[in-house]
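Q&A log
Question type: sequence-to-structure
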Amino acid sequence: MAQGNLLITDDEPIILKMLKMNLADHVEKIFTAENGREALAVLEKEEIHCIVCDINMPVMNGVELIKEVRARGIQLPFIFYTAHGERELMLEAVKYGAFDFLNKPNLDGLEEVVLRGLKAGSSPSAEEDISDDQLSEYKKLLKELN
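Response status: OK
Response body:
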């Protein structure tokens, strides 16, 4: 069952295509952007419920994007899908409310995390309904820190 609109932001066209193919059956509409600036343009025009985003991109990286989105008062779930999970950037993304992190090019768990993100982005109280066995390693770590 498709739910919500997804924005995928990555500078690699093959990744955009792969993610779009893998997630098409789970979302109402998928929008793509090759950098953070393009993603901001999409956010200004379209109703988006969740963002899947690379961290290292030219023009505007994923951390700069989440900072700008939060500065505009937009609280969408951000799922960082990256091969470059540099600790500093990841910690900074956490400060701005990153929803989850997944390692490229692994697709394991991507659908589940995106569905949770879409649910949370469609109804803000939805994230609270997730059981511990549905949490990713990132979410479990955050829970332990709190």
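Response note: The mean pLDDT is 83.
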